[in-house]
Amino acid sequence: MKSFIDAHCDTIVKLANRGGELAQAEDMHLDLKRLKAFPGSLQFFAIWLDPQYYAMPMRRTMKYIDFYHTQMEKNKDTIRHILTFADILENKRNQRLSSLLSLEGGEALEGEISALHIYYRLGVRAMTLTWNHRNALADGAAENATGGGLTKFGKEVVSEMEALGMVVDVSHLADAGFWDVEKLAKKPFISSHSNARAICPSQRNLTDDQLRALAAKGGVVGLNFYPAFLREGDAGIDDVLRHTDHMLKIMGEDYIGFGSDWDGIDTTPKNLSHVGDMSRLLEKMEQEFGGDVMEKIREGNFLRVLQECL
Ligand SMILES: [Zn+2]
Predict the structure, then answer these.
(1) What's the 182 CA to ligand 1 centre distance in angstroms?
(2) Residue 116 has what pLDDT?
(3) Distance 267 CA to ligand 1 centre (A)
(4) CA of residue 171 to ligand 1 center, whole Å
(5) With left for phi above 0 and alpha for psi between -120 and 50, is residue 122 left, alpha or beta?
(6) Residues 6 or more apart in contact with residue 169 via CB below 8 angstroms
(7) To which H or E segment does residue 285 belong?
(8) What is the pLDDT of residue 15?
(9) Do residues 250 and 296 lie in contact, with contact meaning Cβ atoms separated by under 8 Å?
(10) I need a surface site. Which of 58, 86, 237, 297 has the fewest CB within 10 A?
(11) What pLDDT, in 10s, does the model give residues 72-119?
């Protein structure tokens, strides 16, 4: 099966919380048994913190990062943690999977820039600045009405991430923060798991102006499979295609990728209920958009950003 890049899943946190092994976990949306049917693929694994841990975010983050590296070590014949763009290419050459460790929410920094440096040393290569709420960096999507953008610390973090070689991710950020990142960013930035607001009006999706601005910076938007971000009511594969079609019209073919949100969502689209169904989605998209466009959406676009940012 063809390889792809998926810029967001919550599998590590879910597994760490309930116990289990990444190698095989049939009741999860994603495990290696199914992912390895797509050799050469790259999966982002996000560390997300339930708000109950906001009183001790770093401690909880350590628990998840430890679990993550333990799982990577146990499964190193199948998947390898990547630090550089060259690591991705080497894994592809060896038909192995690549894994990129990301943080979902700047809460994990506890307002301390040195924490960003340490997370980088622990192998973190991307970070969503906020989750849905306000933190020391910025306001999240649920606080959109306040009009709050990046704080002074948030701006420092964005610049420092670029200097270190980490990918800045604006998914979950409120609109004002998006535009602050857009003004500040010297490198491409991503929206790892968000759709088009013109097609499905959620604060978690991007407006057409935001899509254009992100594309002008050379970034990528990862298509999110969460039904509530695809349409009102039950969603199917066709809804992922509708968002793709809209983004193609607004941005062109060089700025779209995948950000499934596997194991972070409680419902899934019909016929797209776990990572194994990516074969069905890729096939349908190739019929609709053609092989050249799909090569870019599958992985070419995110590879370009990772080459520039890491
Ligand atoms: Zn998320």
Answers:
(1) 20
(2) 98
(3) 14
(4) 7
(5) alpha
(6) 7, 102, 126, 127, 128, 129, 189, 190, 191, 192
(7) helix 278-289
(8) 98
(9) no
(10) 86
(11) 999 999 999 999 999 999 999 999 999 999 999 999 999 999 999 999
Measured over the CA atoms of residue 83, residue 86, residue 88 and residue 91, the dihedral's sign is negative
Radius of gyration of the chain (CA): 18
- Residue whose entry in the numeric block shows the structure tokens 């073919």: 253
The pLDDT of residue 144 is: 95
* 13 Cα–ligand 1 center, Å: 12
34 SS3 class = helix
Q: Which domains does the chain have, with CATH numbers?
A: 5-309 (3.20.20.140)
172 CA to middle of ligand 1, Å?
Answer: 7
C-alpha 114/C-alpha 270 separation (Å) is: 44
Those residues of the chain that have pLDDT short of 50 are none
Q: Decide: helix, strand or coil at residue 170.
A: coil
- Which 3 state secondary structure label does DSSP give 72? helix
